[in-house]
């Protein structure tokens, strides 16, 4: 449709789309901060001011952890993409942060896939979507592995009352789905996003052990950074808890929050609800834990998305004639 329009009109619509994405992202951030039924933003700011919970040293360290978090994510994306096309760290930063802003209000950050693909010519886009999926699956694998261990110790430590019949029924459903998926994956004609399973296996195999190992390690380092950041905030707010017991709660929280589908802008609400359940069991004040969850969201998603908005506004699509 856009190709049929005059060049000037095409450019106008393209600028309008970019402005709409940025305005939409900022509007949703504004709504989240000002219309949170669980935590009033003015009370949140007053709470921070009255309790003097942040020194300049603490604030700088928290921002440093957020920068480190995104450094690992961007570096992972650079390594994955470089398996098919060499890109610089600067290019990887533009793609990762720009895609974050563009996907901020899409369900489960699904817009991230399309946004990153637009940075490449059409000949690369299917593979870029697949690389993004692989990167996200690596991060999810780390969350799941740590979360299962953490949840196990959480249940043992705090004698959580579990509806075992419902839990077993849920596990049976998961087992059946897993078996069906495994059988389906064995069929070579089965396809995902236009790729046959045989091609997918070949694609992953061709990534190379170094690429897969490095990406998985960076996913692990990123997880350790934002988990420690949560623990550090607990200390700032005066919550005295050992690192082990804090990590048991934090890893359980991230596991439970990650398996609940959500629109990304409401991710903070879901994590807040799960965090309240987990941490009130550990006897942490509800308002305090909601404040920490909101701060984590501001530090790791709002601030990077503000930088990402610049990359959205300056984005220029790749021409198909240049690979």
UniProtKB/TrEMBL annotation:
Subcellular location: Cell membrane
Keyword annotations of the record: Cell membrane, Membrane, Transmembrane, Transmembrane helix
Membrane topology classification: Multi-pass membrane protein
Name of protein: Lysylphosphatidylglycerol synthase domain-containing protein
Alphabetical list of InterPro entries matching this protein: L-PG_synthase/AglD (IPR022791)
Transmembrane domains' residue ranges: 12-33, 53-72, 129-155, 167-185, 206-225, 231-256, 263-283, 289-313
Lineage summary: Bacteria, Pseudomonadati, Bacteroidota, Flavobacteriia, Flavobacteriales
Species annotation: Lacinutrix gracilariae
